[in-house]
Amino acid sequence: MLDDNVAKELLKNIDETIILLDKDNNVIYANKDYSNFSDLIFKNQDGEFKIDHENKWIKITRKHINEITVIDIKDVSLYNCLLSQSTKDDLTGLLNRLGMRIKLDDIIDKEEKKQLCFVMCDIDFFKNVNDTYGHDIGDIALIEISNILKTLNDDSTFVTRFGGEEFLVIFENKNIDFVLSKIETIRQKIANEVIYYNNNCVHLTMSFGIYCHCSKKIDIKKAIKKADIALYESKNNGRNTITIYNNKKS
Fold this sequence. Notes:
Layout: H1 4-11, E1 18-21, E2 27-30, E3 41-43, E4 49-53, E5 56-65, E6 68-72, H2 78-86, H3 97-108, E7 114-123, H4 126-133, H5 135-150, E8 157-163, E9 166-172, H6 176-192, E10 194-197, E11 200-203, E12 206-215, H7 220-236, E13 242-244
Parallel strand pairs: 12-13
Antiparallel strand pairs: 1-2, 1-6, 3-4, 4-5, 5-6, 7-9, 7-12, 8-9, 10-11
């Protein structure tokens, strides 16, 4: 379920004038453009919201995001707009952290027992690439590696650009052997990838940390932290490798 705070985050960067109402039709949130129209909105006898804007009456359509009611003055496809502008990383097209949170909220809301595997992924020596060749080739490298990681996306797996050169892959209801096999394939593909730019030839590798947890309730922050601990063990062990989190060490 999408909570109020997530909904507000989604709406923050949308150009269209958008208002959130509670069940009694009171305004509980509005984006930055709302001030232009706040004194002009009214509800007619038929329950329709309208606005007097430049002497033209504009019907305000109602849409629902789970339990949140959304009023969209310009009558755009709000859902697609939210997804494209607020939940995707601009450079790579992968989910950003907000998109990941929404996906995870949907999974965690399920009452049944679930197996989630968290895989933290980090490009090795990426700072050296930017320092040596410039940020243009760094961006190309991020896009190329993202395209390789995207091959993991399916109904039970999704990839997030977690920040900078760090990515997070989440597998739902997959055992550790399956996850390990998939990530090993990705590791090899990235190690074999060659990036060409302005007569430069760049080879990259990636390190991985895996943490799997099976229960009805999962502490996402702790799960990601444990995957991150495994990732840094991979870094300390020479990079370009995969480490599975060892619960016995915690």
